[in-house]
Amino acid sequence: MSLLARLAPHLPYVRRYARALTGDQTTGDHYVRVALEALAAGERVLETNLTPRVALYHVFHAIWLSTGAQLESPAEPNEGPNDDASRRLMRIAPRSRQAFLLTALEGFTPSEAAQILGADFSEVERLIGEAQSEIDAELATEVLIIEDEPVIAADIEALVTELGHTVVDIAATRTEAVDAINRRTPGLVLADIQLADGSSGIDAVKDILARFDVPVIFITAFPERLLTGERPEPTFLITKPFQPETVKAAIGQALFFHPRNSRKAA
């Protein structure tokens, strides 16, 4: 199999990563092209002990570092639907930015990110934590929790508060969720699916999203109700029982990559 055929499935993703890393698609594409040219010329090789995708990102970073490129925001970043996220990314320390993007945006494990960056696992975990702290501090917001089990709701509220956010309401039914939205628009919604009166958290979220553009994280013991392939599936879905760190990471990612909250046009 040719080099291009091996790498073709991964190229759209490394381009996405390069764009997020540099804050500019043209600049990102330039570095991807240089990495591919180096591979084609035999100046760089894909490490055989790594998966093809990990090996490609590893080569990209080797090229990046060899050029002495600086991870600075361009003077006039390209406007686009993810422009808010691009600006926020540029304010994160460069090394932390890389570790965060590799794991949060590209879906690599911390171990894979360590291989890509040529770093220790512990260093990558530290870098991710630093990025997460910067994100949490910048994106503090008001949160609506839709959850009918008081103990679980209290646990989620404690996690949210620990991250510096404010819980504005806890709703146990679809009706309560809609009433809460009418009183105050949150910047984030954390929703269960099975609610107290037999109503659906899915329907409650649909009601909310019909009026407001806010990020939503589902936390549920019934993920199969959402992962059906019959409707658009949620980006953030956490299965109960959940790990606190998983919820914290999802909150940071949901807020970071979502445009600033806005009311939908009537």
Structure description:
It is a single chain. The chain is α/β, with parallel strands linked by helices and 266 residues long. Helices cover 53% and strands 10% of the residues. The chain has 12 helices and 7 strands. It has helices at 3-7, 11-22, 25-40, 52-67, 83-90, 94-105, 110-117, 121-138, 150-162, 174-183, 201-209, 244-257, and strands at 142-146, 166-171, 188-191, 212-213, 216-220, 237-239, 262-263. The strands form 2 sheets. It has a 5-stranded parallel sheet, with helices on both faces. Helix 9 (150-162) links the parallel strand 1 (142-146) and strand 2. Helix 6 crosses helix 7. The longest helix has 18 residues, at 121-138. The chain is elongated. It starts with a helix and ends with a strand.
Following the backbone from N to C, one meets helices and strands in this order, namely: HHHHHHHHEHEHEHEEEHE
By secondary-structure content and strand pairing, the structural class works out as alpha/beta
Helix-residue proportion: 40-55%
The description of the largest β-sheet is: 5 strands, parallel
